[in-house]
Amino acid sequence: xxxxxxxxxxxxxxxxxxxxxxxxxxxxxxxxxxxxxxxxxxxxxxxxxxxxxxxxxxxxxxxxxxxxxxxxxxxxxxxxxxxxxxxxxxxxxxxxxxxxxxxxxxxxxxxxxxxxxxxxxxxxxxxxxxxxxxxxxxxxxxxxxxxxxxxxxxxxxxxxxxxxxxxxxxxxxxxxxxxxxxxxxxxxxxxxxxxxxxxxxxxxxxxxxxxxxxxxxxxxxxxxxxxxxxxxxxxxxxxxxxxxxxxxxxxxxxxxxxxxxxxxxxxxxxxxxxxxxxxxxxxxxxxxxxxxxxxxxxxxxxxxxxxxxxxxxxxxxxxxxxxxxxxxxxxxxxxxxxxxxxxxxxxxxxxxxxxxxxxxxxxxxxxxxxxxxxxxxxxxxxxxxxxxxxxxxxxxxxxxxxxxxxxxxxxxxxxxxxxxxxxxxxxxxxxxxxxxxxxxxxxxxxxxxxxxxxxxxxxxxxxxxx
Amino acid sequence: xxxxxxxxxxxxxxxxxxxxxxxxxxxxxxxxxxxxxxxxxxxxxxxxxxxxxxxxxxxxxxxxxxxxxxxxxxxxxxxxxxxxxxxxxxxxxxxxxxxxxxxxxxxxxxxxxxxxxxxxxxxxxxxxxxxxxxxxxxxxxxxxxxxxxxxxxxxxxxxxxxxxxxxxxxxxxxxxxxxxxxxxxxxxxxxxxxxxxxxxxxxxxxxxxxxxxxxxxxxxxxxxxxxxxxxxxxxxxxxxxxxxxxxxxxxxxxxxxxxxxxxxxxxxxxxxxxxxxxxxxxxxxxxxxxxxxxxxxxxxxxxxxxxxxxxxxxxxxxxxxxxxxxxxxxxxxxxxxxxxxxxxxxxxxxxxxxxxxxxxxxxxxxxxxxxxxxxxxxxxxxxxxxxxxxxxxxxxxxxxxxxxxxxxxxxxxxxxxxxxxxxxxxxxxxxxxxxxxxxxxxxxxxxxxxxxxxxxxxxxxxxxxxxxxxxxxxxxxxxxxxxxxxxxxxxxxxxxxxxxxxxxxxxx
Lengths: 466, 508
Description:
heterodimer, A: 466 residues, alpha/beta, Rossmann fold, 3 domains, six-stranded parallel sheet, four-stranded parallel sheet, B: 508 residues, five-stranded parallel sheet, 22 helices, 16 strands, globular
């Protein structure tokens, strides 16, 4: 704390290495199987993993056609069975029953501990059964919640084809985004629109977003003459974007640092380090950064941002001057805090499971800038927070809103503290200019609920104090 | 390796944590990697719990793995001891950390040296037992620990209470309607003039465990949690137990008679026959429901029952004995206790299915095509796909199993709730009658959905008026049947004549 007081313009980072709760990184299955339509996700783990996906995430019964557990039993753990043969049996069954374009093996803590050689087995099995197998180690020993997606995308980044690998007849099919944007227009018209783009090296964006958001961000960049050549992941595994050395890449989510590293080191692409397109401020900064790399003078962004802010006024009235505390869960915390501070809130603490200061540098700088422009104190950033200590701090600070995982929400509400589930921000569409309203819709819901119920005096619903 | 899409019972540590966090002022430390600690989410969200779940994860990450976890686990136990002053801390690994093969008992012994509270390792094999078995075992282990402790300290009082008294064993957090069942059982015991000595583990303190021998008998309502504890208490103190689940009118009576027998052997002179008769015939609505015209329409209808041992067995008996429904298949996912289940239900159903594979049950349902299913959330899901109604009677738990209103499954109020569940699960009475008139459940070849959705067929004014006279809840079906009839015969205009022809054709 003292450091922060001495240098009011610097962020204060701490690592509590405490006992904290986030969802398991294998939860990424719940949104990735929907995003990649021709995929099959096989989580190789124990009953504990399966029960989590089934009961806490509620995935199983709905995902059944494209998701399954390879449940490790006692004989697997004690190495009485051959991993290769077992996985072959399961994958052959999956091929027979579902015939996906790709099988994604999701490794877990257990495969780490028993040191299952997934990377060694996959290429052999892939050759044998004729379906690509992507291996992602989304385990809780190394990663938290949303980082599961990072492990999958990092693995897929290595599978993106080079231009030479893509046959010409495939090319049209591959460029699904372009097709999407052309809305089925004829070829002549399309080549005409190509001239709307500035001449710049190919740009590939990474991060799994719902299709409408993908279209939205792609169009925002198109307005500035920036052409997006592809997204990682694409809607289909067979449509993974072409990646060549020297391509530019840019992420849309703060938890994708491994994917960024893989794209840089393994695929020799150039990473554009920008703040993330969350909130009108973040979206503008993201577009501006991409434009600046391509020497494009962005047009009308300032007006665009101002217009969005004006349209948010009804929500901003509710949050101005209020405080928000992030317990830390999905790694979106810094971006959300920066946006909410810009909305007029203060933020005493940003808990975050993992902080990659290099990948998030632009976002962190933007946070500092936002705090100083809004004239509010810098938040304290606590990596791997201790939830028990955080609860004491929340009790002392009495923030107006706590963004927290599901385990703490009801008990905090019972003690008169407003909460919003962090997981909602993971699943809601929060990227881009127009979706800023959805973030505020979520963040203000407890505050609006309070306004509706304020005369009842139902604040503390537990007898003892915390 | 097993390809699994669905699990009926959770992993072992869930059972242990359900028991530990049911007790008051007991804390559990999970020795587990990040993400294995979703028990807290389940308890906080499903039970809509106001208090912080007394479970803390001692996070296992790469660094801990490299250094060894003893220091961290011991620190976390002693830290929690200082922060919350629990009476007991239960340490449990998960499937993952149990394969590290650490000497966790040694961790516990070390932590005990620096802790005010008792510290215990939950002793279960995470790859051999499931949630239900682990819960049963942990409950017995905690009881044994405190009985031995009291014996050692010389303050174990084994004198029976003056008045007949009971320990209710096996009511726990995240159990299927357990809280409501518990309230109902307490009411029932009060009606029978029996003092409730303890309810274990829900809401009990470990301090109370040494009073267990004072009870005249133990009541074990659930087959899944409590039997091991009851056996232990019987072996130690000779306390008899009643393990008949008081679910349904007949078995509630059987349970009460068993209690009567046990009390009278111990010198009480109780006669509960009048009580049973009064409750059965005049207080509970279930027996009257069985006689009512509504239930008459259920005669011979086919049903499939699937669930845990307790609920699937009891439900099968209720449907067959009390409502005259034909249970084609009764099944359980409690494979480890299959013999008991077979013995309980085989005389009441055509087939018995013991399986943890939801696909097998789904296939059986599709083959049998019952009028209703009584199963778990999974069978409800299967039912939705096959358009067969399903009443949920057993875990795996779901937010819907924690209603705010009072919905016990046990005791006499439970019989009412079950009658409602059965009634609402079948299509009955007026609706049934109308469906028969207009052609029954034609759901397999439905061509258009919804009442006015984009029909390519024209309805004449008269036919439309007639259609509107059909009660709302079957109007959609009547419309679909009529339109299907018209389409099959290339009729584009639906007149009154066509409508009646359709009705006749379906009736024929």
